[in-house]
Amino acid sequence: MTAIKESSTIQENKQYALEKCPVTFVMEKIGGYWKPIILYHLSTGDKRYSELKRAIPAVTEKMLIQHLKQLETDGLVIREAKPVVPPFVTYSLSEAGKGLLPVIDAMAAWAFKVKDGVYTI
Amino acid sequence: MTAIKESSTIQENKQYALEKCPVTFVMEKIGGYWKPIILYHLSTGDKRYSELKRAIPAVTEKMLIQHLKQLETDGLVIREAKPVVPPFVTYSLSEAGKGLLPVIDAMAAWAFKVKDGVYTI
DNA sequence: CATAATACATACTTTAGGGTAAGTACTTGT
DNA sequence: ACAAGTACTTACCCTAAAGTATGTATTATG
């Protein structure tokens, strides 16, 4: 249990995020490098833990499970475990998680436009 | 100039991002805590540096200027400086930057839905 | 009996990013 | 002569996040 320094700008900010700036609020939930990528891979349907691992080879197991737990805690993904051995766990998007798909889709659309040279960056 | 360790998963990943995952590619450009917030504040029109500072009180000057420079380098914002004293510098979205507005808008729309209780998270 | 498969957990180390504080340049106003 | 305003810059420190490596439970299978 690592104590959080109260004077961290970002941490203090998080308390008031929704009131102050909607984008800040979203960044609390899906900020960080891996979360949007996980959501993107779940957007095409339920995935087992091991399927996500294969779909995102660059992520370490620690990061994957950590972010899945956070996304679950934040109510964006749903974890379902069948009581079998070996374990069978699937992750899927909740309604709130599905509500974020326009964000993910807009990201993908922009990336493809860049790829196609629509924008010169 | 701080050397980047080659063995960082995220750093290595960045080389191949666009090929592998469009969302990863976008996260390279607007990932991090402050960038989407900056874009959000620029979405309503050009802003002077000092206006941005006032609009985002929680950000430190170092972070603000650092991210503005990165966004400029990435071709998402345009910096225009009038050669006057005191300095008069305005930041605005480039075409590519404007292309990201659907992403920002989708974020804001989701946040307001959460606020209105459309989703239970 | 040992290995494989799945879905994690945990201890420890490293690093990238963020925070603090101070300084710079140039001119106008008092 | 000194402060005030604007848009930065730079040096140093600290922490949160990410990476590495190993361990756990359970059962089927050779």
From TrEMBL, chains A, B:
InterPro entries reported for this sequence: HTH_HxlR (IPR002577), WH-like_DNA-bd_sf (IPR036388), WH_DNA-bd_sf (IPR036390)
Annotated HTH hxlR-type domain ranges read 21-119
UniProt-listed SUPFAM superfamilies = Winged helix' DNA-binding domain
| Highest rank taxon of the organism | Bacteria
UniProt keyword terms in alphabetical order: DNA-binding, Transcription, Transcription regulation
- Descriptive protein name: Winged helix-turn-helix transcriptional regulator
This protein's species is: Flavobacterium quisquiliarum
Which parts pass through the membrane?
none
